[in-house]
Design brief:
6-stranded mixed β-sheet, 215 residues, transferase, Rhamnosyltransferase, globular, transferase activity, Nucleotide-diphossugar_trans
Length: 215
């Protein structure tokens, strides 16, 4: 089976539109999703210009398979509500679910430039990779309003468990694996886009990666 990240990252190459959004067959978008996301994206464009890679993402509400809400906030439910949009934080933890992401054409172009091999195992997920490219080379805005119903069932349990000290201890081995995988992803990002990063973000990235590897 072809990984989801491969499909999403590959299809970006064929997009010619002014904006892009990720979606699959299990997503349930609320009616105001695109209107809200584009409103904030336009605000970013007014502030930074359309030639800057820009991205917004939102929160989600967690539901069961019948779309009955079980948690009003995905970010709170997964313990990520206090994680900011700084490069240092996002290199280790992804806060943007793919189905909530909306980006501009300039971001898409940079992602394609950075992803010459969509099968690269160092790229962990398409949404995390998109988030990192935007954070390192442009600007990211997180919107804490849910715009998607996240249908929770046995085949998409990612992010469902509340992240706390107990889950951290219980999943210690898996967390260590993910940690080192995120370091490799950060290294790949720097190698691909280091020359395009603003000096300040480039230095943040380099320090964060160095500190992570040396911990």
């Amino acid at each position: 089976m072809v990984p989801h990240k491969v499909i999403f990252l590959d299809i970006l190459r064929y997009s010619k539109n002014e904006y892009f959004a990720f979606s699959d067959q299990d997503d349930y978008w609320l009616p105001e999703k695109m209107t809200l996301c584009l409103k904030y994206l336009h605000n970013l464009e007014e502030k930074y210009g359309k030639k800057s890679p820009l991205m917004v993402y939102t929160d989600m509400s967690v539901t069961d398979s019948n779309l009955k809400i079980t948690a009003s906030s995905f970010l709170e439910n997964s313990g990520k509500e206090k994680i900011g949009d700084s490069v240092q934080e996002l290199l280790i933890t992804s806060v943007a679910a793919g189905c909530t992401i909306v980006g501009n054409a300039e971001l898409r172009k940079v992602i394609v430039k950075a992803t010459d091999n969509v099968f690269d195992e160092k790229i962990l997920m398409h949404d995390w990779w998109t988030l990192l490219v935007a954070a390192c080379c442009g600007h990211v805005l997180g919107i804490r309003t849910p715009t998607v119903l996240y249908r929770q069932h046995n085949t998409n349990s990612v992010g469902a468990e509340r992240y706390n000290v107990f889950s951290k201890i219980r999943n210690q081995k898996e967390n260590a694996r993910k940690y080192w995988a995120s370091c490799k992803q950060a290294e790949l990002l720097y190698n691909k886009l280091g020359e395009f990063m603003p000096c300040k973000k480039k230095e943040h990235h380099r320090r964060s990666h160095f500190n992570n590897v040396c911990q």
